[in-house]
Design the sequence.
């Protein structure tokens, strides 16, 4: 069974913007790769953290630190390999999920640098940018692979998302001047994501 | 715009998912066209006409009111 028109989006059936957000089916292979990827991105900060502690403990064997760092590098290599495999297969939904998971795993919500006081401190702060860039790229690919109705739903939802966030940030900035507590910029990202999902729910409902 | 997509699909005993696969669109799009909630683009309308071996105007009724101008009763 092949699509009859080359102008129509291929594999559009694999990805939909629904009331529950963007959804698609994960193949067994993709599920396995994303699970391995998750294990890899959990292992990297853990090993780096242990390596950082090993640097401040003079009693430990010198090879312990090297071993932990080598383990972190192997995990990073595995994660890179899995990302490459997903990209090569064109499994953008799995790549989007994997990139999101990796970004959240590396991002330090507690604001404490991962390898504080070592030469890896600054490079590791920039590490979340790599999975973030992959997530954005995968999302763009997904949008390009969706059909015309899905794109319409997405644009309507994004309009709702940006509109609500714009209004909310403006109103809250005035309220802050009137004495309400200061809110971190991370919450505005959350507002955008939430209002976008609400926009998806409203927009996709129109065409059900 | 009214259309006879559901009838044509039923004649061939295809499910919405099967038709969506043949057209290279999502099942939701096929459902939205069949229920007159969405008017397809020209390339998609041509794709549908070619798939069913009909003219576009035999499937889509140009005399019916456009979706954008329709008002609830």
Sequence:
């Amino acid at each position: 069974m092949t699509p009859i028109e080359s102008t129509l989006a291929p594999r559009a059936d694999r990805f939909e913007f629904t009331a529950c957000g963007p959804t698609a089916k994960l193949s067994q292979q993709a599920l396995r790769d994303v699970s391995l990827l998750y294990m890899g991105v959990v292992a990297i900060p853990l090993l780096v953290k242990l390596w950082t502690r090993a640097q401040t403990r003079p009693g430990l064997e010198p090879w312990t630190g090297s071993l932990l760092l080598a383990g972190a590098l192997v995990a990073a290599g595995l994660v890179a390999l899995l990302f490459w495999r997903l990209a090569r297969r064109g499994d953008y939904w799995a790549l989007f999920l994997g990139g999101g998971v990796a970004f959240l795993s590396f991002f330090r919500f507690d604001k404490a640098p991962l390898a504080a006081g070592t030469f890896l401190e600054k490079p590791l702060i920039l590490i979340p940018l790599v999975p973030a860039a992959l997530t954005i790229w995968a999302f763009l690919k997904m949008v390009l692979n969706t059909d015309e109705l899905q794109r319409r739903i997405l644009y309507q939802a994004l309009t709702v998302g940006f509109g609500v966030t714009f209004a909310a940030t403006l109103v809250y900035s005035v309220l802050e001047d009137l004495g309400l507590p200061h809110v971190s910029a991370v919450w505005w990202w959350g507002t955008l994501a939430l209002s976008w999902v609400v926009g998806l729910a409203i927009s996709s409902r129109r065409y059900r | 715009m009214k259309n006879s997509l559901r009838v044509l699909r039923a004649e061939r005993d295809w499910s919405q998912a099967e038709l969506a696969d043949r057209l290279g669109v999502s099942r939701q799009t096929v459902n939205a066209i069949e229920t007159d909630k969405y008017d397809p683009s020209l390339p998609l309308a041509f794709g549908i006409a070619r798939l069913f071996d009909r003219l576009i105007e035999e499937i889509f009724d140009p005399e019916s009111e456009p979706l954008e101008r329709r008002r609830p009763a």
Q: What stands out?
A: Confidence is low (pLDDT under 50) at residues 1-13 of chain A. Chain A touches chain B through 24 residues (CB under 8 Å). The radius of gyration of chain A is 21 Å.
